[in-house]
Amino acid sequence: MKLKLEIPDAAYVPEIEQDVLGTLLFGGDFRQVASFLRDDHFVHEVHRILFRAIRAAFDQYGSANPAIVSRLIPEDAALVFAQKTDHAPLAYMAALAEQIVVGPAGLDRGAQAVKAQWARLKTGEIGGLLRQTAHDATADPKEIIQGVSSELDEVAAELRSGPRRKTMRTMDEATSAALEEVREAQQRGNGLTGYTWGLSDINTATGGIHPGEMVIIGARPSMGKTAVALSIALRTASTGIGVGFLSLEMGAQKLAMRRLTDIAYDWGVKVPYTDLIKGTVSESDLSAIIEANQSADNLPLWIEEQSGLTISDMRVKVERMAEQAQKRGTKLGVLIVDYLQLIKPSGRYSGNRVGEISEISWGLRELGRELGLAVIALSQLSRQVESRDDKRPQLSDLRDSGSIEQDADMVAFLFREAYYLQKEKGKDRDKEDERIERLIEVQNDLEFIIAKQRNGPTKTIRLFVDIACSAVRNAARY
Known about the structure:
Elements: H1 14-25, H2 45-61, H3 66-71, H4 75-85, H5 89-96, H6 107-134, H7 141-160, H8 171-188, H9 200-206, E1 214-219, H10 225-237, E2 242-247, H11 252-265, H12 273-278, H13 283-293, E3 301-304, H14 311-327, E4 332-338, H15 353-371, E5 374-380, H16 404-407, E6 410-415, H17 417-423, H18 429-442, E7 445-453, E8 459-466, E9 471-474
Parallel strand pairs: 1-5, 1-6, 2-3, 2-4, 4-5
Antiparallel strand pairs: 6-7, 7-8, 8-9
């Protein structure tokens, strides 16, 4: 039977859709595409009707037999078949058997081709609208760009969704994978089943930074969140693992200055990074800093400094970082976000900050799982910390917490007693002497408080910090 089909677009290739539909009707397993292929991915109206009927047949009867499918096509939709194809629905389905190219073995690939064609034509449609709108002299270019970016992001998101990764395993399969992690840790000889934090005591307590998991590091301002995050980024990248750093607050150059003083610190060059910013560093110190940092050239570390990013925007940025890492012969393993509350939410929970933060937290976790990344997200803590005598943070201090605690595999807090001692003043001479003595004692102390850990203990780890030089180290070394 010769198959006739009215073509809606010169760039449209109907055989791509016909191959998938024919396969589903004659031997293909609908479950292979049920999770990611929708009727609106089909460009032709007839094919959209047919795919809806196939889905209904499978949902109701567990079968996509053409005889069953034809009975589920509404009467008015059958008229569309006659107008667009010159065939009744059942006859058109019979003709699709001749359009099958690969068959069931290529169903996943064919379904992705359907989506790719939809995305290509949709992108062209958006481009046409962009051209029309741009020729309107009254149009706001900022709104035009934002509108087009949003639509293109939605198309890109649809393309990214595909056959879902395997989530169900037998216990034997899971055990084999777990033993493989143990063997890899043995080979590394450092006891880690994840990537290094660059801080041995934290490595011991956690087993490393684990792909697919999300870590929240919360603190009040001036506790050293960015210093800790940058230290982790530098040390992890130095092992060859790609690290992405999304800085929604601080510019890349300011971060780079912190890197310069951090790395130089181990060379005995102790220069505050603010001296670099102000240009008050001596020529000899600057030369020493440059020499020290040559050892860290070409690290697989990428910084994105754009503010106001949505989860969708971040996904695009991270995928580009992953591509750059692949070109370098490594993989992107860790994503650091500074900080969570600065991520721009969608309009879904507009006005409900707890709902917005919950959406952002869940989105970060899913991004890490989908791309196989360890996600470390910094989080600002609420001001209620300041109202207590003991200002060490607690889980309840997570700002606008929503489901942050629930989504996170690990929650850690940073606390510097010296910060609060510097702000105080003794009530009398003796108290003031005690304050100064204590301040000298804890000047470089940083507490890394593990308040939640799914697969390990909760404990407080003492670290060394020189805030001025943005240097964070193991306490035992200093």
